[in-house]
Amino acid sequence: MTPLTLQQVEAVARAAHEGQTDKAGRPYAEHLAAVAAGVCARGGDAEQIAAAWLHDAVEDDALSRQWLEQAALTARTKAIVDALTKRPGEEPEAYARRILATDGARLVKEADLAHNADPQRLAALDEPTRTRLTEKYARMRALLGLPEPAPRR
Predict the structure, then answer these.
(1) Residue pair 48/104 in contact by the 8 Å Cβ criterion
(2) How far, in whole angstroms, is CA 35 from its chain's centroid?
(3) For 136-151, how does the pLDDT look when each residue is reduced to its tens digit (9 = 90+)?
(4) Is 127 left (phi over 0), alpha (psi -120 to 50) or beta?
(5) Rounded Cα distance, 71 and 50, in Å
């Protein structure tokens, strides 16, 4: 089976998340596009970019695990999406270990964390949520051995 093109993967992801918004009320597809662009900017390949578009689809129940298993995607793309899909009740350390053990997943998670922790995005949230998420993202960066983001000027 021929894998879906990046344009097809983007269309699937946008359709799957149609009507969903992020914590700040923005269309969720904006986050997916930013993560895909972040993967590209970090030198990621087509499989990682495809995974970026789909990185939250199974976790958010936008697409099923069965869909992922049967999708016309490469085994590596499927593995990255699976690695990035948090399990209910999973400890951050176990989640980070799975990401680190999966070829290509760390770079996608790095792009995801970078967008999630973007100061402009966080500024739209209330203070308790902003503080909680900032700490959560910093902890995951540390577990993955990622540097702290450079301060914006």
Answers:
(1) yes
(2) 6
(3) 999 999 999 998 876 6
(4) alpha
(5) 12
17's CB contacts (< 8 A; 6+ apart) are 28, 29, 32, 56, 57, 60, 62
Distances (CA, A) of 119 to 11, 12, 61, 85, 105: 28, 29, 27, 24, 24
Q: What is the pLDDT of residues 1-39, one digit of tens each?
A: 899 999 999 999 999 999 999 988 899 999 999 999 999
Alpha-helical segments (H) within the chain: 6-16, 28-41, 46-54, 65-70, 75-84, 92-100, 105-116, 119-123, 127-143
Contact 38, 114 (CB under 8 A): yes
Q: How far apart are the first and last CA of the chain?
A: 47
Residue 66 structure tokens: 């069965």
| pLDDT above 70 (res 104) | yes
What amino acid is encoded at 114 in this protein? A
Helices (H) and strands (E) in the chain, counts: 9, 0
Name the residue type at position 103. D
